[in-house]
Specification:
Elements: E1 7-18, E2 21-32, H1 47-54, E3 62-67, E4 70-71, H2 77-82, H3 100-105, H4 119-132, H5 139-151, E5 159-161, H6 169-182, E6 186-191, H7 197-204, E7 210-214, H8 229-243, H9 246-250, E8 254-258, H10 262-275, E9 283-287, H11 292-300, E10 305-308, H12 315-325, H13 327-339
Parallel strand pairs: 5-6, 6-7, 7-8, 8-9, 9-10
Antiparallel strand pairs: 1-2, 1-3, 3-4
Helix pairs in contact: 8-10, 12-13
This protein binds flavin-adenine dinucleotide.
The site of flavin-adenine dinucleotide has 23 residues, from strand 6, strand 7, strand 9 and helix 13.
Amino acid sequence: MAEVGADVVEMTHIAKRFDELVAIHDASLSIRAGEIHALVGENGAGKTTLMNVLYGLLPRDEGDIRLRGQSVSFRGPAEAIAAGIGMVPQHFKLAPSFTVAENIILGAEPMKSLRRIDRIRAESEAAELGHRFGLDLDPKFCYDNLSTLLEHTPPEKTLWIDMEQSPYVDVTLELFRRARKSHANIGVCLQAYLFRTEKDLDSLIPMGAAIRLVKGAYNEPAEIAYPVKKDVDENFLHLAQRLLSPEARRARVRAVLATHDRALIAKIIEWTASQGVPKDKVEFQMLYGIQRAEQIRLAQAGYPSGVLVAYGTFWYPWFMRRLAERPANVLFLARHFFSN
Ligand SMILES: Cc1cc2nc3c(=O)[nH]c(=O)nc-3n(C[C@H](O)[C@H](O)[C@H](O)COP(=O)(O)OP(=O)(O)OC[C@H]3O[C@@H](n4cnc5c(N)ncnc54)[C@H](O)[C@@H]3O)c2cc1C
């Protein structure tokens, strides 16, 4: 490791042209050990191009790059990585058709032989990175489990994926999208309390996904989620309207509204009736044993209705974790236990 204060990276008089277009002209940057720099500029100013040149993604037309005093010319990212330069690209640099592990190793693939990637090592390295940075979800393990479950799911039944806390939303949606390519009978849960959910919905509607909309069960920070219940309820209604819009119905979206909130259910029913949405497209789901009278009323009125039953050897830890995440759930449960 370089001594703090020593020059580590020196880029001098760098120029990069794409035919007639001058992307960078006479750019110099010097970074000493221990420093953190921010490269600020307008869109098109050449910031990413300069970093791509440093990272070996693009050859420079002019100028010099010195790394710890040595002049370097990387022929690709692999050489830059080997020399200790890493780059975290913007999300649109990720290859959507690649798995999480494939995206992580891109440019630094562990090789079995000259031409064959060592997939087992790649996946275990990706999993190890996940653990190290608190992402306790091994994407490969999850996907394999999901595939096994899907193989055992009859085509007329839907396999639903729950949504956990916000750090898991991207990975969960990626697992869902990947599995959906081969199995149409898979659904995913989206949480109305997250600001991002409308965008997620927009990306899932065109594929005609099965979506179970819930308010959300975890305590999320106010930077990413509505902290006030009234706003969550309003967003739920808004998202339910998107899920039942003519566009979504044309795309054959399956809209499942998983809530016990009777006032909200009444608003949804009022809105769908005013829009002429057929009752069989408005599906409600609740937890087993909660609001039973409402469940029966909805089913008798002609709305497809379902209950979620926790089962299997892990039902108890799952249930306790849900209760522990949000103390309000304990109160709800106690109230229903005594009223039923
Ligand atoms: C089928 C289903 C799947 C779900 N999947 C997920 C998921 O994947 N991820 C996730 O974050 N959340 C999930 N949830 C939980 C959801 O996010 C809410 O936390 C939960 O449903 C409570 O919100 P609510 O819409 O019922 O409205 P609230 O306003 O919270 O509740 C309305 C009323 O319903 C009653 N009530 C609500 N919940 C309970 C309860 N547990 N026990 C007793 N009474 C209750 C109370 O009377 C309350 O006043 C799921 C819920 C259901 C029904």
